[in-house]
Amino acid sequence: MKGRPSKFQHDDFHPSNILINNKSFSGIIDFQRMDWGDPIHDLHKLGFFSKQVSIEFTKGIIDGYHENQVLNESFWELYALYSAMHIVSALVWGMGRSREQYEVLLKYSLDVIKDHDNFNCVIPKWYANDYHS
């Protein structure tokens, strides 16, 4: 991660924090987790929350982030790393809330692990068009 840029990030970017009005983007809410860090880190919740809502939307966020250019291996390595790291914090956060919240996050965590073939693959199956629920 040496040499990675440090940029302002929302750090809780997912569909529940995106406002839509009349089928158009209207804004983003919930900035209490904002911080500075690797811009790729701001995408780490896509496989947890956005994928559950829409795989095409989730792919679009990644493609839009890269302005529809070819994604390189280093992006996916960092994306997979940040996704794996998020599993730990998500489960700890869920345990502190409720058993129900923990169970939801455990399911999402297991989905992320499956999508990355136990992290033997850095590109998630939902992006690589190999998604089977």
Give a topology summary.
Layout: E1 7-9, E2 18-21, E3 24-28, E4 35-37, H1 46-53, H2 55-65, H3 73-97, H4 99-115
Antiparallel strand pairs: 1-4, 2-3
Q: Would you summarize the structure shown here?
A:
The chain is mainly α.
Q: What string gives the helices and strands in order?
A: EEEEHHHH
Mass-distribution shape: globular
> How many discrete structural domains?
1
Radius of gyration: 15 Å
Q: Spatial order of the strands in the main sheet?
A: 1-4
Number of DSSP E strands: 4
Main sheet specs: 2 strands, antiparallel
Give the class from helix and strand content and strand pairing: mainly alpha
Distance between the termini: 32 Å
Tell me what you see in this structure:
By secondary structure, the protein is mainly α. It has one domain. 46% of the residues lie in helices and 11% in strands. The protein is built from four helices and four strands, in the order ββββαααα. The strands form two sheets. A two-stranded antiparallel ribbon has the order 1-4. Strands 2-3 form a two-stranded antiparallel sheet. The longest helix has 25 residues. It is globular and about 40 Å long. The model has no long low-confidence stretch (mean pLDDT 90). This is Aminoglycoside phosphotransferase (APT) family kinase protein. GO terms for molecular function: kinase activity. Keywords: Kinase, Transferase. It comes from Thermaerobacillus caldiproteolyticus. InterPro entries: Aminoglycoside_PTrfase, Kinase-like_dom_sf.
